């Protein structure tokens, strides 16, 4: 969970993720190097990188570059995003909506709350719309019908309301209180 | 119930007859008609437009709603509206809402109500703009290079050095073990778009940012009280005396819209509920789509 930056363990993820032209397209494809804000290097198939609209347009503008710095993306969410995109490419080549749905569902269910939320800005930044939808839905599902306290702890949010504001909100939303689970 | 709504239409019309505003409000429907083509929903579009301007009259203290007599000139100024056939609209009103044929007061009442809040509308428009701006500031990744991209090419900097230092909510090194996960407003907006109103209200209680995000107008264009048990006791009556005075006429629809339509949505829900309760409109049957 303490995923963050600079963690040496991430290097192993990098190596896991990068070299595997096995499952995908037969022809040897160009590799693209992505560099996370914490200086992790990710080598990915060009086809995977092209799933990232941001990276894609980057390459369109400067085709000669071989390393794409992603200064506001840390390694862990990036590795997960890459994982997701690899799968999506398979589904693209071999469309199977049911399988895709299943994969997407599994992809999010096995992620921690934090992983999910951390991936959202990454998916947004890289402009991976499918993933963004999947993530947003998943997060919404996880906080749906949960108590305010639960949601705060889910996101690590501090309550910054004054007592008066809270009371006011409570009154205003009285109608919405029915049927909310307390965690 | 329904009769009660319609009975006083005549008065309303007399009080507020103002064709210009009427037609303007009317015109609004056409703009969105393609999108919400159902006959029964037509009136909601009009309402929506009227509300968009009028809504802020309810803002905060609700004081704006008291100025029914002072129809502002603002609508004329915005003269971008055209006049579609009123009869059609009205009949849509009648059938979908009141089930009667003589609803002539409804649309004008709506428009008038809207007109009375011109002042508020201007304010609203400003707020809206400001909101958009601040949102883009928050969410836009300005071209500030983050530390990690030191060896990138100039063009890399240009394209991908997107982190705005002022924006502390994206993944960043400030992330600590305490599992702090912040999303920018637009990302929250995306998540919230998957939540229903009840959950949006819950979300509003989480923190200020969430309150603001959850009250975004996008989420409150549609109100659905289906299977909700809303009682007058859940509402406060001290809010909108002027709105109450309106509730005897078909303009209740307007009032409702004025409340529901905008981003202040949840703050105004109780007003809405109050009004509707006093009108004995079966709340569980109210579903809106604008």
Automatic annotation (TrEMBL), chain A:
Q: What is the lineage of its organism?
A: Eukaryota, Viridiplantae, Streptophyta, Embryophyta, Tracheophyta
Superkingdom, natural source? Eukaryota
Species this protein is from: Salix koriyanagi
Q: Where in the cell is it found?
A: Nucleus
Q: What keywords tag this UniProt record? A: Ligase, Nucleus, Ubl conjugation pathway
Name the family: Belongs to the SKP1 family.
Q: SKP1 component dimerisation domain: which residues?
A: 129-176
Q: Where is the SKP1 component POZ domain?
A: 30-87
Record bears the keyword Glycoprotein = no
Q: Which PANTHER family match?
A: SKP1
Which Pfam families does this chain map to?
Skp1, Skp1_POZ
Q: What is this protein called?
A: SKP1-like protein
Q: Which ranges are annotated Low complexity under compositional bias?
A: 1-21
Automatic annotation (TrEMBL), chain B:
User: Which Gene3D superfamilies does this entry report, sorted A to Z?
Assistant: 1.20.1280.50
* Alphabetized InterPro entries for the sequence: F-box-like_dom_sf, F-box_dom
Q: Which SUPFAM superfamilies match?
A: F-box domain
SMART domains referenced in this protein's UniProt entry, alphabetically: FBOX
Stretches with biased composition (Acidic residues): 1-12
Q: Which residues form a coiled coil?
A: none
> Which parts of the sequence are annotated with region: Disordered?
1-31
Residues of the F-box domain? 177-223
What the entry lists under Pfam families is as follows: F-box-like (PF12937)
Query: What's the protein here called?
Result: F-box domain-containing protein
What organism is listed for this UniProt entry?
Salix udensis
